[in-house]
Amino acid sequence: MPMILPAAQARLASQFARIAIESNMVIGLRMAGMMGLMVQAPGEPFRMVAEKQAAVSESLFAMASAGMRGHSAERMLSAGMRPYARRTRANSRRLSAVKAG
C-alpha cells in the first residue's frame, strides 16, 4: 500500500477544512431559521435529518468502491468526504440565498 504523500495530506486537510467551514455556516443558518430570525422552508428540520442518512450511505459506498479498485487511503478518504462536501456547499448556498418577499 503506497504511503500518503505530503501533497495528498494537504489536499485532504484542505477538503476537510472547507467542509468544516461550510458546515458551521449551515448550522448557524439553520439555527437562526429555527429561532425565527430568518425565513426557513417548512420542511427544513426534516431535510436536515434525512440528508445526513443519505450522505452516510453515499460516503460509505464511495469509500468501499475506491478501496475495491485498489486506490490509496488518501483517495478513499477523499471519496468518502465528497458526498458531505457536495451537501454542505449546496446547503450553504441555498440557506444563505436572499429570499424575495
Please outline the helices and strands.
Layout: H1 6-34, H2 44-68, H3 73-96
How is this structure best described in words?
The chain has 101 residues and is mainly α. It folds into 2 domains: 40 residues; 59 residues, no CATH class. It contains 3 helices and no strands. The N and C termini lie far apart (56 Å). It comes from Paracoccus haeundaensis. This is Antibiotic ABC transporter.
| Percentage of residues assigned to helices | over 70%
Which blocks of ≥5 consecutive residues have pLDDT under 50? none
Mean pLDDT: 89
H/E element string? Answer: HHH
Overall morphology: elongated
Count of individual beta strands: 0
The portion of residues forming beta strands comes to under 5%
Sheet with most strands: none
Domain count: the total is 2
SS class: mainly alpha
Terminal Cα span: 56 Å
Radius of gyration: 16 Å
Number of helices: 3
Could you list some keywords that capture this structure?
101 residues; mainly alpha; 2 domains; 3 helices; 77% helix; 0% strand; elongated
